[in-house]
């Protein structure tokens, strides 16, 4: 008889691949819920239930996930998993592959503390499996209530929690503390200065007033870039290029589809010149529905002398593998690895963020 596989690992792998493929939330949730429901089950009971067909009597386990478990226990790669692997996307070209290999971490990610779908621990372990050396946790700030943004009190609690998680993670990997802070209408940052100073990495993004007229948006962004606490300017145009379902599986998922949205209007040359002057990195956001900034603006930021951060803006573990998309666009624009801050080690990155002021 074939040796049994780990059915929980197979369920989680399927969920990861579905997240990476930006599949609908309900599909992802089915496999993550089943993995969670079965994780605490004694091995003997799991095997017995798979044999007598009673796995579906457990909350969170359906017909499809039960079939995958039975196939795993029989030593077979589940058919569902095999099909996902067989239909994975095309390979990257040599330049994008080299850039992806140079990345040591991801500077923009979310957990279920705000609008992400998974606990911090799951996000971290997925990053470990992808070969990262660090993951910057950047949950939202208070004004973004729709995304359960963290108040100062909740952020302080999160910092304590991250310290506990780091103590239990594999040696050589660490979670870096951070935030995706809202850039407010007047260009100020939506969190207490003393807390921003404590964080390892601060990403700042515009989430409201995206249709503001050009001069107002430019002033807003310039003020934010000049703030010594801001390390990375996130998804700079705010555009949405796709209406595909967003694969968020947490409280922030309201079952909606992401709508297309035009770019915000601002003086890109002035903003990128300010980023270069203040040594603020420009994010290349890897989310398929964002692809932000567009390639023409990546080239202008490169010409302006800016640094970059190739981030996933991941809201689920499988989305952490979306860096390939950002690397592909960066490589097409000629962005060299030595201009990308997350090719640095965690120590180099934190030294840079803390010494920029």
Can you describe what's shown?
By secondary structure, the chain is an alpha/beta fold. The chain has 14 helices and seven strands. It folds into two domains: 7-86, DNA polymerase beta, N-terminal domain-like (DNA polymerase, domain 1, Orthogonal Bundle); 94-354, Alpha-Beta Barrel (TIM Barrel), CATH 3.20.20.140. Helix content is 43%, strand content 10%. The protein is globular, with a radius of gyration of 21 Å.
Produce a short descriptive summary.
Residues 105-185 form the Polymerase/histidinol phosphatase N-terminal domain. By secondary structure, the chain is of the alpha/beta class.
Q: What brief labels describe this structure?
A:
357 residues, alpha/beta, DNA polymerase, domain 1, TIM Barrel, seven-stranded parallel sheet, 14 helices, 10% strand, globular, HHH_MUS81, UCP036978_PHPhdr, DNA polymerase/3'-5' exonuclease PolX, zinc ion binding
